[in-house]
Amino acid sequence: MALAGMAGSTAVAATVPDTLQQRIKACTACHAQDERHDAFFPRIAGKPAGYLYNQLLNFRDGRRRYPLMTYMVEHLPDAYLKEIADYFSQQHPAAPPAQPSTAGTAALARGKQLVLAGDSVKKIPACVACHGQQLAGVAPAIPGLLGLPRDYINAQFGAWKNGVRRAHAPDCMAQIAERLSDADVGAVSAWLGTQAADAGARPAETITLPLPLHCGSVPGSTDKVAP
To answer: What is the dihedral angle through the alpha carbons of 62, 172, 180, 52, rounded to the nearest 10 degrees?
Structure first.
């Protein structure tokens, strides 16, 4: 009877299709494509392929640290990681709704200023200068900012400040995080959270150069940088 049961289990296992859709279930178990506001497992569908590929490399190669992600990708080759990134970049589920905020008027105004205009005194560029006027990201390697959970944005700035999250040098986001106070981070995440993402928004194909900072993860950004 035991042998028969084992044979049956083997037969069932053999019927699982070896397709990308089947294999990425390991990803969607946490990163549900219709995810709304999960601070730990943000939705990755619809983000530029180059950005997703860079993050998979960063987890695999130790620039970002999260044990579950490292375990998932530490033995995967570049070509497979790129295939995963390409797949998710082509998925565009409905945009999540805006998040209610308890931040005060002053904090929301400060967040809006930083996102749309930056702060020249603190040498903080506007978020839209890199992430696009619609804040939907720019292909191939800059992610969108709308629709992300407020707590996730806060956590990522904390990770940059603490060195837990890094990118290819020069790491422009680490530089920006150092210039932002905790209050500034909270203001940015609060204002972004109150903005509803356009259902039809897609990552822009181009962005106005020069970029305000060198960014090692963005192709071409180290060639032209604003003074």
So the answer is: -60
| Dihedral, 60, 65, 68, 72 alpha carbons, nearest 10 | 0
How many beta carbons lie within 10 A of that of residue 225, not counting itself? Answer: 15
> What pLDDT band is residue 6 in, cutting at 50, 70 and 90?
low
Structural domains of the chain in order of their starting residue, each with its CATH number: 16-193 (1.10.760.10)
For the beta carbon of residue 210, count every other beta carbon within 10 angstroms: 14
**Lowest-pLDDT range, 49-58, 68-77, 198-207?**
198-207
- How far apart, in whole angstroms, are the C-alpha atoms of residue 215 and residue 17? 40
H or E element at residue 125: none
Classify 222 in phi/psi space as left (phi over 0), alpha (psi -120 to 50) or beta: alpha
CA–CA distance from 136 to each of 20, 27, 219 (Å)?
A: 26, 22, 18
Peptide bond into 210 cis (omega under 30): yes
Q: How far apart are CA 80 and CA 73, in angstroms?
A: 10
Tell me how far apart the alpha carbons of residues 33 and 200 are, in angstroms, rounded to a whole number.
16
Q: How confident is the model at residue 41 (pLDDT cuts 50, 70, 90)?
A: confident
* Residue of 101, 99, 89, 5 whose CA lies nearest to 52: 89
Matching residue, tokens 């998979």? 56
88-122 confidence digits (pLDDT tens): 999 998 888 899 999 999 999 999 999 999 999 99
